[in-house]
From TrEMBL:
It is found in: Cell membrane. Its main location: membrane. The keyword Magnesium does not apply. The gene is kdpC. Belongs to the KdpC family. This is Potassium-transporting ATPase KdpC subunit. It comes from Chryseobacterium formosus.
C-alpha cells in the first residue's frame, strides 16, 4: 500500500503546482501582451464600461434586440437551457419570443424570422446576431427613432463583421456595438 500512496501523493502535488500555479501564470503572462491585458474587449460609452464579448439585454423598440439568453445575460452563470426541441416548455418559450417579435415588427412574416432571434445560444451570452436578424428589425427602429431606414441599413453595413479570413463562419453583428453606434447617429 505504501508503494501506491506515496507516488499518488507526489503526483497530486505535482499536478497542483503545474495546473494551479504554473499553467495559470503562463496564461496570465501571455494575456499581458494584448492591449486589454486579458480583461476582455471593453468599450467606454458615457460613464459606463461594457464587455463587447458578452451579450447584453436590449428590449426597447428603439434598439436592436439581442439573441435571447437562457441565463438572463448573467455572465457569472453562463449556460444553455439544455432543453431540446421535444421539450414543451422550451417550445412555449420559443413561441412566446416569436409572437413578441412578430407583434413588435408587424410587417414581418413568420418564415422571415431567423432562428438566432428566438433561440438562446449554448452559452446564453452570445453578443452577436445574424445580418438577417439585424435587417428585419430596421422598420421598427426607424419608426421608434423617427429616422430613415437607409441610415440604419448603412449603419448595419458598417458594423457587419466578415467571416474570419473570408472563409470561416457567417457574417455577424455585435448588438452592443451596433446599438451604441445607433445612439450616436443623431
Amino acid at each position: 500500500m505504501k508503494q501506491q500512496i506515496f507516488p499518488a501523493i507526489k503526483l497530486t502535488g505535482l499536478c497542483i503546482v503545474l495546473f494551479a500555479v504554473i499553467y495559470p501564470a503562463i496564461i496570465w503572462g501571455f494575456a499581458q501582451l494584448f492591449p486589454s491585458k486579458g480583461k476582455g474587449d471593453l468599450i467606454q460609452s458615457g460613464n459606463k464600461t461594457y464587455y463587447t464579448n458578452i451579450g447584453q439585454s436590449f428590449s426597447q423598440d428603439k434598439y436592436f434586440w439581442s439573441r435571447p439568453s437562457a441565463v438572463a445575460y448573467n455572465s457569472a452563470g453562463s449556460g444553455g437551457s439544455n432543453k431540446g426541441p421535444s421539450n414543451k416548455e422550451y417550445l412555449k418559450d420559443v413561441e412566446k419570443r416569436l409572437d413578441t417579435l412578430l407583434m413588435k415588427n408587424p410587417s414581418l412574416k413568420r418564415a422571415e424570422v431567423p432562428v438566432d432571434l428566438i433561440t438562446a445560444s449554448g452559452s446564453g451570452l452570445d453578443p452577436d446576431i445574424s445580418l438577417q436578424g439585424a435587417k428585419i428589425q430596421v422598420k421598427r427602429i426607424a419608426l421608434a427613432r423617427r429616422i430613415r431606414e437607409d441610415q440604419i441599413m448603412d449603419l448595419i453595413a458598417s458594423q457587419t463583421e466578415k467571416p474570419l479570413l473570408g472563409l470561416f463562419g457567417p457574417e455577424k453583428i455585435n448588438v452592443l456595438k451596433l446599438n451604441l453606434a445607433l445612439d450616436e447617429l443623431k
